[in-house]
Each structure stands twice: as structure tokens, then as C-alpha cells.
Amino acid sequence: MYQLIWDKGFDAGRDLSQKNMDKLAAEAGLNMAKFKTDSEGVCKKIIRQDQADMAKVGTTGTPAFYINGRFLSGARPIDQFKTIIDEELKKANERIAKGTPVNNYYNEWVVKKGKKSL
User: Fold this and answer.
1) Taking a C-beta distance cutoff of 8 angstroms, is the pair 31, 24 a contact?
2) pTM value?
3) Does residue 117 sit within a domain?
4) Residue 12 and residue 31 in contact, taking contact as beta carbons nearer than 8 Å
5) Which of 24, 47, 110, 116 could form a disulfide with 4 if both were Cys (CB 3.0 to 4.6 A apart)?
6) Is residue 11 in a domain?
7) What is the largest CA-CA distance in the chain?
8) In a structure prediction context, what are the per-residue pLDDT tens digits for the chain, which is 118 residues long?
């Protein structure tokens, strides 16, 4: 189904309509009753919750990137990514040099001390 969505949904004119998804699910041989039940029920609930959770930290669309917790929204030139990555590597190397264990860096400086919400 994933490959069909990519090939016949996204690449073929970005047709991600429910009608096209139903067609692709049938083509993939999915159990259509379960597909429709899941599409209208639990899947929508999960997606809505994910959207609400991401909106709490400022992500309201795609593409969205987090580099060590730093948010970068939208399609950006590679140089902007490189700048942020270089800055984050510098910070990480400095903190590790001051005693933060390499294996604890992400959890200590990104997860625990990172921005939790707007």
C-alpha cells in the first residue's frame, strides 16, 4: 500500500483523496471493510492527536525538521541545515569536553533541557 500511495497517489499528481486511497487499498488486496473502518475511526483519531501534539511545539505543517531539538520549518536550502548542524555539533563537542558522557548527550541536553511547548 505504501508503494502504491507513493507511485499512484503522490507521484501521479498528488491525488491523496479518499476515493483514490480506497482504489489503491483495493488494488493492494486489503480487507476493504477493515480499511474503511480503520480509516474513519482509529486512524483519524491517531492523526488528530499527533497533529495536536506537534502543534504544541510549533509544528503545524510539513516539511518540518528538528536538529537536536531546534525546529526548522519548510523546505530550506542545504546551507541552512549545514549551519544548524555545525552549530549543534560545536555545542555537543563543547559539552562533551566539559564532562557530559557521549551516550548521555542527547537525553541530557536535547530531551531534558529542550523546549517542551510554546
Assistant:
1) no
2) 0.60
3) no
4) no
5) 24
6) yes
7) 58
8) 999 999 999 888 899 999 999 999 999 999 999 999 988 888 889 999 999 988 888 888 889 998 988 888 889 999 999 999 999 999 999 999 999 999 999 999 988 887 665 5
At 91 the three-state DSSP class reads helix
* 32 and 26 Cβ atoms separated by less than 8 Å: yes
DSSP class per residue in 15-68:
---HHHHHHHHHHHT--HHHHHHHHHTHHHHHHHHHHHHHHHTT--SSSEEEET
Round to whole Å and give the CA distance between 22 and 4: 11
To which residue does cell 557530559 refer?
100
- Using CA atoms, how far residue 11 sits from 8, 29, 47, in Å, is 6, 21, 22
36 shares its domain with 71: no
